[in-house]
Amino acid sequence: MDQVVQGELKKAAEAHGQENVVVLLGSPDADSADIYAETVTIGDPTYAGPLAGVALNLPVHHILEDMVKEEVPQEIYDEQVGVAELSLEKEAICSAMEEARVKFV
Amino acid sequence: MITPVVKGASSVIAHTPGLVRHGSKPTRETAKNDHLLDEILANLRNYEEAVAYPPNQVFIGNMRPDDLNEYARPWTNVKLTDAERFGPSGEIVPEDEFYGWLKIADEFQLVYLEKTFLLELKEKLTNHPIIQPEDFERLGEGKDIEVIEKALAQGKAEPLHVNGNKLVGYVQTGHDEDPFLTAEIILENLCNKASGIIAMRHVLYSFDVTAEDVDYVFGCDEEAVGDRYQRGGGNIAKSIAEHAACVNATGSDIKAFCCAPAHSVNIAAGLIQAGIYEEIVIIGGGSLAKLGMKFAGNLKHDMPIVEDQMGAIAMIIGKDDGKSPVIRTDSIGKHDISAGSSAQAIYKSLIIKPLERFGRGILDIDKYAVELHNPDVTEPNGNGNVPRTNYRTIAAMAVLRGEMEKAEMNHFENKHGMAGFSPTQGHIASAIPFLGHAREMIMNGDINNAMFVGKGSLFLGKMTNLSDGMSFLIEKNEGVNEP
């Protein structure tokens, strides 16, 4: 996760409280979803960005997960995410996210 | 009406492990961690390893992108035994020679090399196919190492190293008070210029257009050349063309982040079609700032640092010669401001709309060139396989349009795409590295057409939230307009 995004997340968590911020990922594969989920929970594993050693423990989900999809009007979801849902490895990403939420606490 | 064609394309790699420490990310990280520079130096490749690296052989044109499918990833584990330094129209330049090109590109006596190093360098460059007698005069006589060390100790200079940590020269500041002419920025811009000169000389050396024939030159890189009053004023294109003997040309820079090469091809094609110019060269030099950008991912996975090299490209767009692939100016795709930024909105603008204009579908294009970032760099860093994601998106569009079954999506990359083989240098990786391959493959009859899809992250500059995209299609020349 690039440093700017990490910095913005850190600022948002400080400004609004960690309990009021949810991270929604759009990363293209299971590996990157895993790293990003780790970054926003227990900290940046590459120790390169503002979240190095900072455990924000933010709730994290992926746009392809059904629990997120259900929150979005279908027409908008199809228009904005439809191609990604078809083209990305949805199953692998979703299971990586489920594992990450258990792993990184 | 004059038909614009692709008369040649060259791709060059400057393998510069000694410059990795000057990349933006390594510079920032080594300042925070005293041990990191040693770790970086211990994980750089030597020149032979860079030459034997399969994606590099593809980049300079000795192998086709599809040949990469024969090798297991990561390709850093593969050492080709028959790898060559020179390709049909490019080369992999070793770092010592590249410092020579830096000196040749230096108009203001800002680059200094050590005497003995320079002597050996001149000997090495003697038989280089694109070196000119006047280049040796520009290389000069060099300085004693004590003088170099003293200049560096005074600050306002950046060191040049070979073989990891051996000091062989320096680049000094261009102005004592100007934050945009510091030694760092002079080095960055000279790297772009020098690699651009090499690529431009190769393209003019390898194809049927002479330097004197060139009317105009576009720069399509991402460097900002200028001073405190006009940061990014330009004009790198003209400064490169000067060193390639294009005496009848002028030029300008096209700026659009990674998308600039595709913009440049389309603008050049329009100027040729309009009859304003007959031969145009598009040049994209390498990016020093991006060296080592994703080094942490490679180190984490016990891989050598793959971003130890800069890419440079040069293309000749000219009037119809009856044989070179034609640029379909009725096929240009552009991402309009109102188009939206979802993947499907972007691809609708760049692929579907232009194809629909002349009644073709997605599968009618033999090969798509997208962002061809080497996954050996991006995957270890958690950025995914960029071209694969792009091909899967295009395949999904074909499924949604009823052109293909979902079960066939996994074959789309192999059939209509390719593995990523380009240095991850933004504009360099943006579809264009396939142009030389596509030109040859079309002329050999291997494919009939190829579409080039470039995208750019304009939002990085904090002036707009928009992204950008341009595309163009080339196809077989039917030879009806023979000169």
UniProtKB/TrEMBL annotation, chain B:
<feature type="domain" description="DUF5940">
    <location>
        <begin position="346"/>
        <end position="481"/>
    </location>
</feature>
<dbReference type="InterPro" id="IPR045984">
    <property type="entry name" value="DUF5940"/>
</dbReference>
<dbReference type="GO" id="GO:0016746">
    <property type="term" value="F:acyltransferase activity"/>
</dbReference>
<dbReference type="Pfam" id="PF19364">
    <property type="entry name" value="DUF5940"/>
</dbReference>
<protein>
    <submittedName>
        <fullName>Glycine/betaine reductase C</fullName>
    </submittedName>
</protein>
<dbReference type="InterPro" id="IPR016039">
    <property type="entry name" value="Thiolase-like"/>
</dbReference>
